[in-house]
Fold this protein.
Amino acid sequence: MGLPISQILLTTGFLLVLIGFWGMLRHRNILRIIIGFSLIDTGMHIVLVATGYVSGGTAPIVDEALSVSDAAAHAVDPIPAALVVTAIVIGFSVTAIMLSFAIRLHAVRKTLSIDVLTESKW
């Protein structure tokens, strides 16, 4: 019949995380590093949503269609989806801060390569 959707989501999520790690470690341009970080963030969101998915499941609303005894086996878990919504907002704000840092770095150094950042201010 094919792969279940949760298996496809988990595979896609982990693949995005691996591509993001590869992009962060392989490239020396700070914008590409930020894109790699965003890919890792998106992959983790997909993995979290896939953990709460139930094949053939329904919305977690207990009523005449879904009894309390059937809710544990047939309802999709809403907690991972709620956590992902929060994580998306946090991810956007972290990405915005990283991009503002890259803009400031370009204004001062006239380059986005991390190779020129050799001095330490510690």
Notes: The two ends are 58 Å apart (CA to CA). The chain has a mean pLDDT of 87.
